[in-house]
Amino acid sequence: MANVAGQPKVVLGIDIGGTGIKGAPVNVETGELLAERERIDTPKPATPEAVAKVVKQLVEHFKWTGPIGVTFPAIVRNGVTLSAANVDKSWINAPAEQIIADVVGQPIKLLNDADAAGLAEQVFGAAKGRMGKVLVITLGTGIGSALIVDGKLITNTEFGHLIFPKDGIAEHYCSGKVKDDLDLKWKDFNPRLNGYLQHLDLLLSPDFVIIGGGISKKAEKFVPEMKGIRFEVAGATLQNDAGIVGAALEAAYTYGVLTPAS
Ligand code: BGC
């Protein structure tokens, strides 16, 4: 598949996670996935080279030629991965975008997974058309964050690593994984999330906070329980596809398939 005049603008989006690597071609004008998602287990150990080979397998699965957007759950600055909280430590300081592009043999745009989710929510989801300060928080294995100010994404905010509540970090207190590992019921988990959101409120005064990650499927269990905050809260709309769609969008902007709306 590739882009042809008069046809939908399509980019391949790939979402690298700790347990699975998923991809699908995305119509970047509508956010629609144009084929069923394909998922391959994340290799062990998940080094950049091993992960790059899986990305290549996905590219071959879709017989894709053209730009490819790829997410990664770490700080990504100018194509270099700078952290590795829940992934193999060999990603720290790795020129990951180049490593993947070399293995795949096609142009790659690499970005943080929560930034991708934020971009997708802003263009096609719950934050569509919203001005002001929008914060997308993803609750999964870790906690990811995307800050969007008047429609512009401020990348690599890493609010999951805020020291909260006292001597640990937020993602060790109220991520989706913490909820599962400690088998927390909603009545026990919600006060944790609420405390974290109150902390974010004090630090950032956002206008709107969108909660993504696996948990967002159950938004009705936590959204009404959030108290003492001065912003609107909602569950993410794109849920599982946000990473794939956001990755495709960012690659579309980078490689001139699409011009970002100003
Ligand atoms: C990482 C972030 C990532 C988040 C969600 C955190 O541990 O530091 O970069 O966005 O997990 O995957």
UniProtKB/TrEMBL annotation:
GO terms for molecular function: polyphosphate-glucose phosphotransferase activity. It is an enzyme of class 2 (transferase). CDD domains: ASKHA_NBD_ROK_PPGK (cd24058). Coiled coil: none annotated. Keywords: Kinase, Transferase. Its EC number is 2.7.1.63. PANTHER family: POLYPHOSPHATE GLUCOKINASE (PTHR18964:SF146), ROK (REPRESSOR, ORF, KINASE) FAMILY (PTHR18964). NCBIfam families: PolPhglucPhase. This is Polyphosphate glucokinase. It comes from Amantichitinum ursilacus. The gene is ppgK.
